Amino acid sequence: MRIGILGGTGPEGRGLALRLSQAGYPVIIGSRNPQQAALRAEQLRSRLKEEGGPGADIGGLENSAVAEACDILFVAAPFEHAAGLLDNCRAHLRQGQIVVDVTVPLQFRAKRLQLRELPEPSASEHLAKVLPEGVLLVAAFKTIPAHLLEDLSQQLDCHVFVCGDSVEARRRIVQVASRIEGLSPLDVGPLRQAATLERMTVLAIQINKRHKVHHSRYRVVGL
Question: What domains sit in the chain, N to C, each tagged with a CATH number?
Answer without folding.
Answer: 3-211 (3.40.50.720)
